[in-house]
Amino acid sequence: MGTIHIAFGDNKSMGGSVRVASHLDGLIKKPTVWFDDRMIMNDGNFTVAL
Prior knowledge:
The chain is built from no helices and five strands. With about 50 residues, the protein is mostly beta strands.
C-alpha cells in the first residue's frame, strides 16, 4: 500500500522476547528503501518482484 511500518519497544504480544512498558509505532508514506546497495522500494513502489 506504499508504506512501511517501524516499531520500537514491547513485542511480547507478537511472539517476541522484549517486555517493556511501551510500544511505539511509526508509519512512513511513500518511502524509498535500500538493502545494502539495492533499492527495493522507490516512493512507495516496489522496484523488485515479490
